[in-house]
Structure formats: structure tokens, C-alpha cells
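Case 275 in the screening queue. Each case pairs one protein sequence with one candidate compound; here the compound is D-glutamic acid. For every case the pipeline is the same: read the inputs, emit a complex structure as C-alpha cells, and attach any notable structural observations.

Predict complex for case 275.
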Amino acid sequence: MTNLRNEAPIGIFDSGLGGLTVARALSERLPHEDLVYLGDTARTPYGTRSPQTVMNYAHACARVLREQRAKVLVIACNTVSALALDSLAGELFLPVMGVVIPGARAALAQSPRGRVGVLASQGTVRSGAYPRAIAKLQPGAQVFLEAAPLLVPLVEEGWLSGDVPRLALCKYLEPLVAHDIDALLLGCTHYPLLDSLLRPQLAALSGKDIPIIDSAHAIADEVADMIESKHLATERDDAGKLRIVVTDQGEDFDHAAERFLGRSLHGIAVNAIDL
Ligand code: DGL
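Case 275 output:
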């Protein structure tokens, strides 16, 4: 007999469309699972808002995904993971996972001397969530943080190459490189899209091959393990479906969503809701 709970979708949410990088990593890692993605596009960005506002928005998003019968909740947004994970996990009767701990664990695994650099939004940096997670996982490891507020708007505008994003990256990477980091963790949904600029910039500034950790892949692996260990995996073996729910479907929605998702929206249901 079909177990209805196992056939429910994995719920993912983010402040906007950037978390589609996490949806993409999850659909590659768990190709048979249905996914429902909520992007709070009407209120993005969260990274510059106060902790209380992020908390209120996060709870509203989580309630929507609970109504959609999500079997687990994946917080794709670093800012929400940093500020509201414990509060969400306390309120929802669902397994909840955020990107901070999987990202921190993956960064430490690639950091032989425990010197991790983190690029993130101001809210994530101010929260201290990455240093806390890293200290818990590996006491004595050192974390160097850099808030990179210009990178989200650049990626939103689709400025993924050229002098402007290159110079902005340079400005944010320089202080991290000066700390002689041995791994760079991308603590924001948007930064993986800058990968083709980031890698050469980091190599040029450091003269080394510093590993870059994208927390989207790190969380996809941990969600797969969690679903397995909690016996929540789907029993179906056909391709899982992705549904996208947004709080505002602006003019450039299709292009922006496809950029983060890395594929066409063809065949993907998109709904706009009021929150
Ligand atoms: N999703 C956010 C994060 O990962 C970036 C965009 C925003 O500031 O809302 O922190």
C-alpha cells in the first residue's frame, strides 16, 4: 500500500528565486522526489533586514509549505537558516534542515588547517551562525567572514561576467585571501552563479587552488541521508515533479528562475500566492 507521507513533496523555501540552486541540487540528488519550492519574491531580499523581520517572514513561508503537505522542510536561504532555524524547528512538526550546518561541515572537510573563509549576506554575517556552527563541529577551527552585499543585486540583474562583478568579487575576496584561508564557503544562494568568475579570481589573488564550497550540494547530500534514515523516501521510481510557488511573479520571472534552476521552466507549474 502507498505510504502517503512518503509520497508527499519535499518543501524548500527561500527569500526569492536564489534557492532554486538548492532545488536544482536536490532534484539531481533525489530525482524521484516531488519538490515544492516557495520563493518569497514579494519581500526579497532578506539579507539586509532585521532578525525579527526575517523570523516573521520565515514562519509565514513555513506555514505555506506545511499547508502544501511537505514531508520535510529545507531552508535554502542562508539568512533564514542563520536566524530562524531553531525557531522553525520548534514550531513545526516536521524535520527541518537549513544550509548553514551542511555547508560548514563540507567546508571543514576541505580545510586541512581549519581556516575557513565565508562570503555571505550582512544578516548572515551579523548572526554569527557560521562561526558558531564551525566551532561546534571543529573547536579550534578559524572562520573569516566577509559580507558581500553587492553580489545579490548583481546576480539578480544577470551580471555574471565582466568588470563590474569581477571588481566587486575582488574587493570581497581580498581580505579573506589575506587571512590565508584554505577553503571558501559560499554562504548565500546567489553566489554559485558567479562560479566562473569566482574561481579564476580566487586563484589569481591567492596563487593557490582554494576549494570553493557551494552549500546547495552540501545540503542536498544531507537531506538525502535524513530522508533515508527517517524512512521518508518516495517509493516511486518515475521522475519527481517540481512545483514553484512565489509571492510575486514579476516581469523577468522566467529568465531569473531559469538562471538559478539551470534549465527551462517548461513543464514546471508556477503559482503566485499572497502571503
Ligand atoms: N537567499 C539569501 C541568502 O542565501 C540571499 C538573498 C537575500 O538577501 O534575500 O542569504
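Case 275 observations:
- The mean pLDDT is 95.
- The two ends are 36 Å apart (CA to CA).
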